[in-house]
Amino acid sequence: MRVDAVIPVYNEERDLERSVTTLRQFLMENGQDWRWRIVVADNASTDRTLEVARSLVERYPGEVGIVHLEQKGRGRALRTAWTQSDADLVCYMDVDLSTDLKHLPTLLGALSADADVAFGSRLKPGKQVTRGLKRELISRSYNVIIKLMFWHQFYDAQCGFKGVTRRVVDEVVPLVKDQAWFFDTELLLIAEKNGYRLCEIPVHWEDDPDSRVKIFKTAWEDLKGLWRLKWNMPRVAGKEARTQESDVGSEESGVRRGTSPF
To answer: Is residue 40, in this structure, part of any structural domain at all?
Structure first.
């Protein structure tokens, strides 16, 4: 299977090279089961991020690619990179690599088997998380709100470590309206409520203390997104609405300074 691993970035000239070379080395050592490519999705960076990305493409031809957007938004970057890809599986991780890459084979393995959507979880039993008390409380509160509104089956909506099949790119992603941080939550809720098979993987995750996310503005936008979905949940044509839950069965089972506050 072909896999595109997307790294969405905005003004990451300092850390992009390190992140891409780290991911590339990991895939060379652990990605023998897939034909992989790393895609840098640059959404309107104003520093040297695009220049750094182009140098990486020249250094690693065929292994690194670029998608450049003139507008900001992690959701917009993921939508564009995923829909322009012709890979069988697409995934993404934040540029700070907060989620340990050791979980990537598990995520891709779940998608290769029977999952439609696979994603990391910082709240599911078995996770190992290092982050401050404020972000821990915000994350848990946000996910409690989602549970009360939708009674969904997953624990963590916003971990920056997700993958989907080509079917989901074609059928679900076009229904996701958000262009920013709520993209993740909206994708999972639409997929679950339309009967797609979700696999949630507890991960080892370490917080980026240099995050530049505007927490309260992002929280407000996400709450508005939840309200919109509550009253207008998109339906995939021809699919029976039902809820499913999948589990890997073991502990394996946006962007730096732009990592979701949740």
So the answer is: yes
